[in-house]
Amino acid sequence: MRKIHVIGIGAGDPDQLTLQAVKALRSTDVFFILDKGEVKSDLVQLRRDILDAHLPDGKDAKYRLVEARDPERDRAAGGAGYSPAVGDWRSARANIYERLIAEELGEDESGAFLVWGDPSLYDSTLGILEEILDRGAVSFEYDVVPGISSVSALVARHRTGLNRVARPVQITTGRRLAEGFPDGVDDVVVMLDAHQTFQRYADQDIDIYWGAYIGTPDEILASGPLAETAPRIAELREAARDRKGWIMDTYLLRRHPRD
Amino acid sequence: MRKIHVIGIGAGDPDQLTLQAVKALRSTDVFFILDKGEVKSDLVQLRRDILDAHLPDGKDAKYRLVEARDPERDRAAGGAGYSPAVGDWRSARANIYERLIAEELGEDESGAFLVWGDPSLYDSTLGILEEILDRGAVSFEYDVVPGISSVSALVARHRTGLNRVARPVQITTGRRLAEGFPDGVDDVVVMLDAHQTFQRYADQDIDIYWGAYIGTPDEILASGPLAETAPRIAELREAARDRKGWIMDTYLLRRHPRD
Fold this sequence. Notes:
The structure is a homodimer of 259-residue chains.
Chain A: E1 3-8, H1 19-26, E2 30-35, H2 41-54, E3 64-69, H3 82-104, E4 110-115, H4 125-135, E5 141-145, H5 150-157, E6 169-173, H6 174-178, E7 187-191, E8 206-212, E9 220-225, H7 226-244, E10 249-255
Parallel strand pairs in A: 1-4, 1-5, 2-3, 2-4, 6-7
Antiparallel strand pairs in A: 7-10, 8-9, 8-10
Helix pairs in contact in A: 3-4
C-alpha cells in the first residue's frame, strides 16, 4: 500500500521542524513539490533547503523530487464566488496530485507533501487527498505530522500569547475581517490578507502584532497600537514586496475593552 | 545577564519537540519544574522523560533540575470570580518563579520553563515572567520557543483541518462554551473543559473530534456526530480518569449549516 505523509514544516526556520517531521522526511521516497509560479520560487528553494538540511544529499540521497506546477487560482472571482473558485482550484489540484501519486509513487513507497506551517490551518492538502480517495482511482494510506504554524511562530517572536486569560481567540482570513471585526472575541489572528485589512480598524483601541517571512532571514516584525503602527506596517510591507516579489504575513489584533 | 527560555515541548510525544526546542534544552543550565500536586505527577515524569530523551544524563549531565510546588488554584471561585482568582494565582506563581530565578539561576546562566503544547495557548508562563520583570527585583532576558499545541496534535491525529475553506475557527474554554456556542463561527476548539460541556450541544448537527493524552501511549481518540459520540466520550473520559487520576483532553466542534 502506498503511504503518504503530510508534513508540517513550520513557518520558514528549518529548526522549527519537529523530530517527528525529520523522521517522516527520512522515511520518504518521493517528495512532491508544487511550484506556485515564478514569484514564489523562493518558497520552493526554501523547501529544498529544508530537505538539504535534514536529508543526506549527493550520491547518498535516496529520495526523489517530483515537481509540478500548481494550477492558477482564479483570484478575480471575489466576494460570494470565493468558495466555488476555491473548490474548482482544489479539484484542479486534486487532478495533479492524483496523477503524481499514480505515476510517480511505487506501490510500496512513501511519498510526502511538505506544507508550510501546520497542515491544519488554511491549507488544502488534506482536503485534496480526501477528494482523491473519494474518487477511488488511486488508493493510499496517509498520516499528518503537525507543524509549527505561522501563528505560533508569530506570537513566539512577539513573546505574547494568542489568547488573554480565560478568553477566546479567533483565527480568520483577511476577507472575513473585511466584513467586520468578529463577534464575541477581542483577540483575532488574521491570515491570507492581501489587502492590509487591519487598516480599517485603526480608529479603535487595538494593538497589532505583525510579522512577515517569520523564521527566515528576511523576517520583519512590528507591533504596537494599531493607529500608529498600521502606516509603518504598510510601508514595511510595500518595501518588502518590491524587494522580494511576494510576501507572506500574519498578524494578531488585540482589542482593548471600551471604557 | 540571566537568560530564560520558555520552551513549548508539544502535547506529550517527545518526537513532537522541534529542533529549535532541543537546541534550547541543550543550552539550558537550570530547568524549573513546577509540580501541580500528586495527581499530575505523571506530567512531571513525562517532562523528565523528555529531558532524558534529548539530553545527556548521569555523569555527563550538565544541567540542574529545580523543582517547586505550584500554588493551589482556587477553583471554587467560579463564574464572574474566575479572572480575579486566576490573577491571584498568577501572582502567587510569580512569587515562586521570582524566588527560583533569583536564588537558583546564576548571573551568566540560562534557565528554562518547559510548557506543554505551545506557550501561546492558555498558558500563564509569559504573563508571569512579564509580571516579574515589571516588579523589577530580578532582571533577565527571555525568548519563546513555539511548540506543537495540543490543538494541532489533535487535528493531525484526526487528519482534519482546524478551519474549513475560507472560514474562521475559534479557540475557547469550556467555561465560555457553557455560556453559548460562539457567534459567527461553526468550528470551535475547546480547551480546559472539566465538565464535558459539548454535551449541551448534542441536539445540534455538530461533529466532534476529541482526544485525550494526545501523543502519549495513553492517547484516546473519538470522533463522529456529537449526538452519538458524546455518550461514548463521557464513558471513555470517566474510565481514563479513574485509571490515571487525571485527564487532559481537547476537542473540535464542527457545526454543519442549518438547512
